[in-house]
Amino acid sequence: MLEVSKLSKSYGKTEAVKNVSFTVNEGEIAVLAGPNGAGKSTIIKSVAGLLKYEGKIEICGYDNKSIKGKSMLGYIPEMPSLFPLLTIKDHITLMAHAFSIKEYEERAERLLKLFDLWDKKDKYGSDLSKGMQQKVSICCALITEPKVLLVDEPMIGLDPKAIRNMKEVMLELKKQGVSIVLSTHLLDSVEELWDRIIIMKNGEFVLSKARDEFDKQSESLEDIFFKVTEE
Ligand code: ADP
Question: How far is the CA of 38 from the centre of ligand 1 (A)?
Answer without folding.
Answer: 8
